[in-house]
From TrEMBL:
Residues 249-274 have a biased composition (Pro residues). It comes from the Bacteria. Keywords: Membrane, Transmembrane, Transmembrane helix. This is Integral membrane protein. The chain crosses the membrane at residues 50-70, 76-98, 118-135, 141-162, 174-192, 204-226. The keyword Glycoprotein does not apply.
Length: 309
């Protein structure tokens, strides 16, 4: 891990960013210390995992409930964030026990604390948003309008942050590259299993209920496995290996790219410029060029210089 720590936003968060909540969310919930994707394919797989999770969470919910209930969606988001607050550290703790065989936990202390701060920040924003909307119902007209505007800004801020965090999963990639797909898989399955166990199919038939409930975890798990497989085959990054034992890989540059070949000397000893075999009009050996004026060997027939010399 690098000892030189940059600022949280690295200058990307300005006053103008707060005019657009999604830009502020992208600056706050994707700090500068989170590593970039190793190559474009990993980045596309990560985006596909995010889109699949968002469609499964919002699209299926809207279809099952027969409409989009904004307040109920916020409450479900608060419940999900509370689950993440306990699930994420638990999953990371299990992986730390696995990694202790080849390394120490102290080596990962800094990225672990940074990831925990990001998790706490998101959970606090979610509960603050829910609290603002609930408080707006207890005050007069003018304060209600102000609180509603603030709540809408926070809602867009939280939703954009949730999309951003779905990719980096609270900056866990700074700990281990395989943690984001692992956490995404565990989270989607944990949210689907209770509905299957309790038989809560949201009023759908057994077949449709199983398809809608398992759609999210199956899709996200498939993309996550492809992501981890590429990390393993192309960069040698294994989920069970301690991050300190993994081979370093430059961000954005595949290791298979060959290094540039330095310029080599001419193997035949020829000069780099000009004719490789000398002048094509040069005389042979032992026959030097004639000396003197090549046009002064003849005179005009009348013995006079034709040019008046």
């Amino acid at each position: 891990m690098s000892s030189a720590r940059r600022s949280w936003t690295d200058g990307s968060l300005t006053v103008r960013s707060f005019l657009k909540p999604h830009r502020a969310a992208w600056a706050v919930f994707h700090p500068a210390w989170i590593p970039q994707a190793l190559d474009p394919t990993v980045e596309r797989l990560k985006r596909g995992r995010v889109v699949a999770g968002a469609i499964a969470a919002v699209g299926v919910y809207t279809f099952v409930e027969g409409g989009f209930a904004f307040e109920e969606m916020l409450e479900n988001t608060a419940i999900a964030s509370a689950v993440l607050f306990f699930l994420t550290p638990l999953t990371v703790g299990v992986m730390l026990l696995v990694w202790r065989r080849t390394g120490t936990v102290r080596q990962l202390r800094t990225p672990l604390l940074d990831s925990l701060k990001l998790l706490l920040l998101f959970v606090a924003c979610v509960f603050a948003t829910v609290g603002i909307f609930q408080s707006s119902e207890m005050v007069g007209l003018v304060p209600r309008m102000l609180l509603t505007l603030a709540g809408l800004w926070m809602a867009f801020f939280v939703m954009a942050g949730a999309v951003r965090l779905s990719g980096n999963f609270f900056g866990s990639a700074a700990v281990h590259r395989c943690l984001p797909p692992l956490l995404a898989t565990v989270t989607t399955w944990l949210m689907a299993v209770p509905d299957l166990v309790t038989g809560d199919l949201h009023g759908l038939s057994l077949t449709m209920g199983v398809v809608f409930i398992l759609g999210a975890p199956v899709t996200v798990s498939g993309i996550a496995l492809l992501e981890m497989r590429r990390l393993k085959r192309r960069y040698g990054i294994l989920l069970g290996a301690h991050p300190a034992t993994l081979p370093p890989a430059p961000a954005g540059l595949p290791p298979q790219v060959p290094p540039p070949v330095p310029p080599q000397a001419n193997p035949y000893g020829r000069p780099p410029y000009g004719q490789p075999y000398g002048s094509p009009y040069a005389p042979g050996p032992g026959r030097p060029f004639p000396q003197g004026n090549p046009y002064g060997g003849h005179r005009a027939r009348n013995g006079q210089n034709p040019y008046g010399g």
